[in-house]
Q: What sequence folds into this?
């Protein structure tokens, strides 16, 4: 039986301190099983990991936050082409609801993507999530690009690390919104020009 999830679409400046605290707890519990550092970045009420989203879709049920997806419009560089996209990230589903799937979050976000008039939405996920996102892509709304590296800045300055990092072990998810997939630029390197969402 599908849980009764109510979706809230909110701009970042509409969130209040209790919202950030609840989301921070949600992200710690959702991301810690993938590695202690992944949960640590949400300590102290922080409800974002790298870049801060401008818009969020938050699913709630009787137990609190059930799911989350963030959006940030930005220009990325694909090969030699500058491209406006809506980056989708900070995706999470509470562990007891893992069957809820990314399709539910994106279906709530999709009309907003159309209203924003962006040509594409894009995000990157760990290869371990291939089956998870493949189910969504079978519906024809998105495409998985493999063999694409993604360069990002670190969200903070670390004296022992270079200012950028390149992920060459990610899957890139592209949703054509205002353009067709055939208009996505060719290239094997995406430069975020900032931290990951």
A:
């Amino acid at each position: 039986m599908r849980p009764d999830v109510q979706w809230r679409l909110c701009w970042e400046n509409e969130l209040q301190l209790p919202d950030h605290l609840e989301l921070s707890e949600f992200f710690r519990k959702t991301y810690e099983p993938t590695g202690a550092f992944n949960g640590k970045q949400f300590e102290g009420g922080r409800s974002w990991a790298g870049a801060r989203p401008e818009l969020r879709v938050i699913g709630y049920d009787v137990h609190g936050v059930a799911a989350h997806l963030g959006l940030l419009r930005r220009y990325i560089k694909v090969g030699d082409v500058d491209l406006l996209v809506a980056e989708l990230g900070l995706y999470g589903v509470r562990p007891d609801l893992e069957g809820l799937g990314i399709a539910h979050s994106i279906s709530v976000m999709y009309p907003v993507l159309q209203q924003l008039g962006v040509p594409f939405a894009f995000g990157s996920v760990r290869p371990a999530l291939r089956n998870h996102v493949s189910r969504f892509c079978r519906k024809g709304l998105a495409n998985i690009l493999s063999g694409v590296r993604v360069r990002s800045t670190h969200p903070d300055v670390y004296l022992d690390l270079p200012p950028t990092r390149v992920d060459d072990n990610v899957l890139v998810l592209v949703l054509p919104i205002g353009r067709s997939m055939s208009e996505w630029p060719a290239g094997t390197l995406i430069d975020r020009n900032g931290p990951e969402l």
Remarks:
- The mean pLDDT is 88.
- The beta strands are 6-11, 55-61, 64-78, 81-93, 120-125, 143-145, 149-153, 164-167, 171-176, 189-191.
- Helices lie at 17-31, 36-40, 101-116, 130-137.
- The domain at 6-191 is CATH 3.40.630.30 (Aminopeptidase).
